[in-house]
Structure formats: structure tokens, C-alpha cells
Amino acid sequence: MGQRTVSVKRVVPETEHLTTSAPESVSCWSLFQTEIGWCGLQGREETVERFLMGLPARNDLLRVIRAETARDGQPSAKSVLESNWYPKLQERLQDYFQGAHVEFQDVKLKLTKMTPFQSRVVQALQQIGYGRQITYGELAERAGSPRAARAVGTVMSSNRIPILIPCHRVIASGGKLGGFSAPQGTSLKEHLLLLESRAEF
Question: Residue 70 burial by CB count (10 A; 0-12/13-18/19+): exposed, middle or buried?
Fold first, then answer.
């Protein structure tokens, strides 16, 4: 289990879960509320396949899930939204968004359809710990392709598991934020970096 240092009294936000039971082998979604808005975790057993974050309302989150489901040719959203899945990870994410120092390197992730370059980038990024930042160019160098800063940006923009793969910690040269594909855009990226800078280690 990753390190958890909570510097403030934890207040669990109001949550609403889809509670229909589902076999552990079925890929499930859990919807829950955090300090930054509604979030969705998808996975099976204890392996995460997708994380969506920062939607203003539960219905907004459902619309995104259904759109992704249709685009990817998966079964209907109704058939996969079945379980209050992985509640311990939900709690850790809620703590994180409240400003606690939470690490996620121990969480199992399902990464598919990745080129060798993309895999190297993700592996290098996962070594960038809480409260640290790295530029696109530096990450490209760590991944063994020092001239591929722009390609690193493409990998970050297609990240399906943000926070657990901490793409928000990758910034542009000169201290500029760079891009961020989450619903709230770079304002959320800035918020997350500030949140981590204020946490007690």
C-alpha cells in the first residue's frame, strides 16, 4: 500500500455508487465524488483500466463514459456500470484530492496498445514521485529518446489513467504548464501541482 499522510481531518464527500453486484472478472465502473468533482474508475479485480476525473456532475461523467464506450466498440455502458468497485482506491483518491500525500505506484494498471516508446515513457514517468515535476524534454531523455519531447506530449495527452500515471507532473520548459487533457484543462493541472506542493511529507 502506498504512503498516506493526511494532514487534515478527512471529510468524505457525498458519494453515489452503482451498487448492482457483478462478478470480479467483469470490467466494472465506480462513480464517486471528490474535491475536484465526479470521478470514475474502471477495472476488474484490483487492476485499473481507466480513470476519469473532474466532471461537474454525475450525469456529465456518465455521458463521457457512454461516449467512450460507443467509440471503443465496447458493450453498452449499462452493462458495465455495475459495481462499487475498488472502494479502497476510491478512498485513497479522495484523500489525494483533499491534499493528502498519497502515492499510487503500488496500484496495478492495465496498459494496452502501447508502442515500445510509449511504454518507456510511462515507465519513466511513474518514477516521478509526489511533489516533483519533469519537463517533456527531460522525460523524453529518460525514456531513451532525447529529441522526442513532442512525442512525449502526445503520450501524455492519450493517458487513460491520469493521477495513477502522473501526467500532470510533466511541464513545458521554462516552467510553463504545457497541456492537460482533463475536463478542466490546465487549471486543474495547476491545482494538482499546487496541491502536491503544499502537502506535508
Answer: exposed
The predicted-structure confidence for 37-64, as pLDDT tens digits, reads as follows: 999 999 998 999 999 999 999 999 999 9
Residue labelled with grid coordinates 484543462: 185
List own/partner pairs for 133-139 with CB under 8 A and 24 or more apart. 133/169, 133/170, 133/171, 133/193, 134/169, 134/170, 134/171, 135/170, 135/171, 135/172, 135/173, 136/170, 136/171, 136/172, 136/173, 136/178, 137/173, 139/170
pTM of the model: 0.84
Q: How many C-beta atoms surround the C-beta of residue 73 within 10 A? A: 6
Is 167 assigned a catalytic role? yes
β pairing state of 28-34 and 37-44: antiparallel
Q: Which of 163, 167, 192, 195 is catalytic?
A: 167
How far, in whole angstroms, is CA 53 from its chain's centroid?
7
First to last CA, the chain: 16
| Helix pair angle (149-157, 116-125), 10° resolution | 80
Coil vs helix vs strand at 183? coil
CA 155 from centre of chain: 14
The sheet that has 28-34: what strands, in order across it? 28-34, 37-44, 47-55, 108-109
